[in-house]
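Annex B. Sample input.
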Amino acid sequence: MGLMFGGAHQMPMLLAFTLYNLCKHPEYLDPLIKEIEAMEQAHPDGRKNYDALPLMDSFLRETARMNPTVVLTMPRKVLHPFRFSDGPVVPADNWLVVPSHAIMQNPDYYDDPSTFDGFRFVAKDKTRINGEVPDNNKNRFSTPSFDFPFWGSVRRPWYSQPPSFTLA
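Annex B, continued. Sample output.
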């Protein structure tokens, strides 16, 4: 239960930082409002197609990247000595963590990482994002990746864990 309640701060903090960034960067308001209005006009029956909101998705992902709720994530205690495939050994009773803040501020992964760019993850020229051909799923806010550990591990993000794991 402690892990579940301990992790319950992530979405409310994201909402708070999103509102903060909208106030700090009002130039994003108009395009975001127009995108939402276009989605609503495309679905007058009230159905929502959140895939039709790439600007909103990018704004949320950039907000989470710039304002991680924790500096170190996914702590794991080493129970038995562990040898990595390239040789280093981690003795038992040590902790391993993922430095999420350092990863999401790494210039090897993000151009100008200390600057807020709400539409960073939307292809500006429809062909490239940060020098790469965009993959619609790779750059989604809800998609975990090695350069965006907001949701946890790529193999087992926190929201895909069985309840027994989440409550452990």
